[in-house]
Amino acid sequence: MFELAEDEIEVGMGIHGEAGYEKTKLKPSYDIASLMLDRISNVLSLKSGDSVAVIINNFGALSQLEQGIVAHDVVKVLRNMNVNPVRVYWGMVMTSLNSAGVHVTLLKLPDKHKSLFLKCLDAPTDAPKWPGSKFSVPIEPSEPIIQHEVIRKVDQIGIEIPSDLQGLLKHCLKNACENAIKEEEHLNDLDRGCGDSDAGSTLKRLAIRTLLNLDKLQFSHPASAFLELAHIAEEEMGGASGALYCLFFTTISTQLISPINKNWTEIWAHAFRTALNSLTQYGKAMPGDRSLIDPLNALCDTLDRTVHKPLGEICDALRISTWQACEATKHMKPMVGRASYVKQAKYLQNVDAGAFAVVTCVNAITDVLKNFHFSK
Known about the structure:
Hypothetical Protein Tm841, Chain: A,domain 3, 2 domains, 3-stranded mixed sheet, two-stranded antiparallel sheet
């Protein structure tokens, strides 16, 4: 029989608990699948283009979730080897005293008799624990459907800006989207524990769709461009984030139709402040509630305070104030969203994911603005 430390696993263990061929430290599921399949593929002399049937046997104590993760990773490893898993069966085929473990078995399907083997595998049976069914055939990975034309076309509304400012606005948006995509994993990590672990993925969907439609947005009329952004956010992000971003962009659009100021810094300051007020009114979050509102409020306060200063100074002040507001969320008690009812303090030691997303975009935009400023 085997003995294992808390952080060890036994590879090659027998169904009755017989010791395996190797003890190793606990690893991610994908790495364990790679380790097992490397051994098996050597024994079977698997090569690129081969087809196999797979049985993943649950020893009894793995949850459905864990069993599914193993099955997913086994299929992924095989496909990365360019080996085609044409049948994948999983379940409690033969348990081992309710142990927490899995067996992975491969049947190499010879090209000459593949159809016969599959016919036998698919044949009806009364065996009570045989997990085979039509659902055991994994769906081939397909290319995602990219809909390049997803923006709702809107009329040209509001003021028209000169070509150099059109290019600047486009560059700012492009840089913000690219920065958001780079920060996907970090944002997801920040959202883990007290969120859905998808803050980065959600923002990435908005960023990708915006980049795909970048040449279609009507930058000549900023009010139209922001309304188009609102539609993209609504359609791509979903959930509360989609609603908030849509509201934010829509409100900015309304303020760019007939701005009361002629100075562009004042126009943007007023538009952002009005958009922030909409978020607090309808989203119910206030400054200090540990959310994206905190750096947005700092941004608006900074714009109000520095509106008549040189652009370079404004950019520096925006970066500092929004980052400080983001950092401050570490020490705030969350009052909105899922984080407001998560009790574990360990999940609330990092900055808020939504706040960090705002900082990510502010940094990207100010980088562009400073380069524009200093090149003038």
